[in-house]
Design brief:
Mean pLDDT: 84
Helix content: 10-25%
Order of helices and strands: HEHEEEEEEEEEEEEEEEHHH
Oligomer: single chain
Number of helices: 5
Low-confidence stretches: 1-47
Structural class: alpha+beta
Distance between the termini: 112 Å
């Protein structure tokens, strides 16, 4: 009798244990194994990926395309000038010049360096230095492979007379003008803020041989067209497309019947809109080379004086 009671008690205990175990298994959370991933999943604490910036409109001749990117360092003006004419690179072994130009505390240009941009990097081309007294500036250029030259800039109020390797007269009033010593040749570019179109003309021996005009197709962009008076189709003239920013950077392309250049000019507008606009425009013209493709840009920058741009 006692044995049967013991057996029944044991069966009852085992049944109760089984029931409790089943109840516990029902309440236990399920574990789902996730597959191993070969990529790291971002957590809520990770920083979001950087948003790519939109490049500035206009040409980017300073960009890294087979050669290192050209970046501004401590210079006041960085100018990257790429010749886009067909055959230039094949003829010279490179197509881009880099100018790193310095100014003093007052904003007047004191010198700089030019480089040739090649696959091996920037190769030093010309060193420019200037010294100034109250009424006279001396500008010298020297290079390892080229012929050195020097100029004297005599300051006479709103006029500068250049003598030495180059000879010309530069004036600044409501226009920026470049003329020969005998006055038979003259380029005139308006800087008059009362005139948005900023007209220009080139006169040779009393006759107008070319005329130009600025237009503004959209905010932050301007175009300049220059041609002979009887060239209605601008078949022999050229056109500049300019993108400019408040901080002073300028990007522009020049095209004639064939492409001419792509240029990035950081700091150029600021230097030309300052107190030394006449001196700086003259020195730039001598350093970069007398060019009807660049002179309209000097005048455009000077015309924006006092606008904070």
């Amino acid at each position: 009798m006692k044995r049967s009671v013991f057996i029944m008690a044991s069966v009852f205990i085992l049944a109760l244990a089984a029931a409790l175990g089943g109840l516990a298994s029902c309440n236990r959370p399920k574990v789902i194994e996730k597959p191993i991933s070969t990529t790291t999943q971002p957590s809520s604490e990770q920083a979001p990926a950087p948003v790519p910036t939109t490049p500035a409109p206009g040409p980017h001749p300073e960009a890294a395309i087979g050669v290192p990117e050209v970046s501004r360092k401590s210079e006041s003006i960085l100018l990257v000038y790429r010749h886009t004419g067909p055959g230039y690179a094949e003829s010279y072994g490179f197509d881009t010049y880099i100018f790193r130009i310095l100014t003093d505390g007052s904003g007047q240009i004191t010198g700089g360096m030019s480089y040739q941009r090649t696959l091996g990097g920037e190769i030093e081309a010309v060193t420019f230095n200037s010294t100034a007294t109250q009424d006279l500036i001396s500008l010298t250029a020297s290079s390892a492979n080229g012929t050195p030259w020097s100029d004297k800039l005599a300051l006479k109020g709103s006029q500068i007379e250049v003598s030495g390797a180059h000879k010309m007269i530069v004036n600044l009033d409501t226009s920026l003008s470049f003329s020969s010593i005998d006055k038979k040749y003259k380029e005139t570019y308006s800087v008059d803020q009362a005139r948005k179109d900023l007209p220009s003309e080139i006169v040779q021996s009393g006759a107008v041989v070319e005329k130009g005009l600025w237009t503004y197709p959209e905010t932050g962009k301007a175009t300049y067209s220059q041609a002979k008076p009887n060239d209605a189709q601008n078949a022999e003239g050229f056109k500049i497309s300019l993108w400019y920013a408040d901080k002073g950077d300028m990007r522009f392309t020049t095209e004639g019947p064939e492409p001419i250049n792509e240029v990035y000019a950081a700091g150029l507008a600021r230097v030309l809109a300052g107190d030394h606009a006449l001196v700086n425009a003259t020195i730039l013209d001598l350093m970069l080379g007398e060019s009807r493709y660049l002179r309209p840009l000097y005048a455009f920058a000077i015309s924006r004086r006092g606008q904070g741009k």
